[in-house]
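Sequence, please.
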């Protein structure tokens, strides 16, 4: 592949930004595009041909999933955003899940830096650049002609002009053939994928925080229950029913639980500060989260494994990058094949053929791994759904049990502590429903990111 000076300058500028973004993005994707999934020993269809085959914009509509990047409703006549369709802003010191993406795109420094690079590339006027290069080449040609007339063709200056001319011609041809435009489009796609990964990470952090707060509530109830147990043990110790060692062990358990609760609270504060930084809020570690959205039955029914998988693969930058890697070994195989008439006895052609086949196997392995991860994610959503249903059934049983305990307590057949234990069991069942609902939404939201953006981590 020819190296183009303009493309290198763009890549150099982008690398400075990507170095700061890597920690937030989690990984740095590679440049590329979708290609053949077939392996074979002979020359196969080009990546471009396979990309175009079977694509019909009218038939490949994305599934109606309630995922990220929901576009605001606009007036069909004026094109203006309908005010009623705008998201309600978060109150001071709070954040809702619905606003995480919007606030990150507006305030996250890594996302904004990437956007500036995207805008920079999009601002390139290729027609003007094409004309400028042609003028520079004509100027160099005129200078060289003057040097020919003055018998300076073998001079150092003449050779330098010759090298500059060749470099400009490479860029000129790259624009003329659309190579530079295609390369820059790949860079833009890479940068947008990095933005998506950062924003998806913010949403996952939100769901993680919600889970940590569920754990905090559970530990608080356990601590309250253990405090009641300690009071009971102290009374029984005074009555001589338990030993000092038993009382000491119970108190030690309470101390450990209290310590664990403080550690959890510290982790929650740190994680909240991280989320605050990601959405551009003041880093206090005290931001209040809104409830995690619930996944509706309609949303789950809209999931179509095979259709969604095809959509995700088309939008995946990972597969785009893997396919791009096929181009060089494929071109080398074709060139040497034409040069040596596909003669297997020629060592250079044999090596090119093996490299091309290895590249295809590598690409197909990447595709299979992607498909496996997507299918696993789909299965996880279904599993979390059945876990939530089971938790709801258990909750109904605990409600009945707690009501029975209330009645027995009123009848004087059980103690107040026994009733409180029954209520703790009910709260625990309610908590399990909340956790299962949170897990289901987290998996479903990840599934939406894969379908709508091709991002699958």
């Amino acid at each position: 592949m020819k190296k183009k000076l303009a493309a290198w300058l763009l890549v150099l500028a982008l690398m400075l930004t990507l170095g700061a973004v890597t920690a937030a993005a989690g990984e740095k994707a590679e440049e590329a595009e979708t290609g053949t999934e077939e392996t074979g020993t002979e020359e196969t269809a080009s990546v471009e041909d396979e990309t175009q085959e079977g694509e019909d914009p009218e038939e490949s509509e994305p599934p109606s999933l309630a995922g990220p990047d929901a576009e605001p409703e606009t007036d069909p006549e004026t094109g203006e955003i309908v005010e009623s369709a705008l998201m309600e802003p978060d109150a001071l010191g709070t954040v809702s899940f619905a606003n995480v993406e919007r606030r990150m795109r507006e305030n996250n420094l890594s996302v904004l830096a990437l956007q500036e690079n995207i805008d920079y590339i999009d601002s390139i006027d290729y027609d003007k650049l094409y004309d400028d290069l042609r003028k520079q080449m004509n100027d160099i040609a005129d200078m060289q002609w003057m040097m020919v007339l003055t018998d300076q063709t073998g001079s150092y200056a003449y050779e330098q002009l010759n090298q500059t001319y060749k470099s400009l011609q490479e860029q000129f041809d790259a624009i003329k053939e659309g190579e530079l435009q295609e390369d820059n489009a790949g860079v833009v796609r890479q940068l947008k994928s990095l933005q998506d990964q950062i924003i998806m990470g913010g949403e996952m952090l939100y769901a993680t925080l919600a889970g940590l707060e569920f754990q905090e509530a559970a530990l608080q109830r356990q601590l309250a229950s253990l405090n009641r147990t300690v009071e009971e043990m102290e009374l029984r110790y005074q009555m001589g029913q338990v030993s000092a060692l038993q009382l000491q062990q119970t108190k030690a358990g309470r101390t450990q639980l209290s310590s664990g609760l403080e550690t959890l609270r510290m982790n929650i504060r740190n994680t909240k500060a991280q989320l605050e930084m990601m959405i551009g809020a003041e880093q206090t570690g005290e931001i209040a989260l809104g409830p995690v959205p619930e996944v509706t039955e309609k949303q789950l029914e809209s999931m179509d494994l095979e259709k969604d998988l095809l959509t995700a693969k088309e939008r995946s930058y990972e597969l785009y990058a893997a396919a791009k890697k096929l181009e060089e070994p494929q071109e080398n195989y074709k060139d040497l094949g034409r040069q040596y008439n596909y003669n297997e006895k020629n060592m250079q052609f044999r090596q090119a053929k093996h490299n091309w086949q290895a590249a295809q196997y590598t690409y197909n392995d990447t595709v299979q791994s992607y498909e496996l991860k997507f299918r696993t994610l789909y299965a996880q959503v279904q599993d979390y759904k059945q876990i939530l249903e089971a938790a709801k059934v258990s909750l109904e049983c605990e409600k009945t049990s707690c009501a029975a305990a209330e009645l027995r307590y009123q009848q004087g057949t059980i103690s107040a502590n026994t009733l409180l234990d029954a209520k703790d069991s009910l709260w625990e069942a309610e908590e399990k429903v909340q956790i299962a609902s949170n897990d289901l939404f987290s998996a479903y939201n990840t599934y939406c990111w894969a379908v709508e953006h091709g991002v699958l981590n």
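The radius of gyration is 32 Å.
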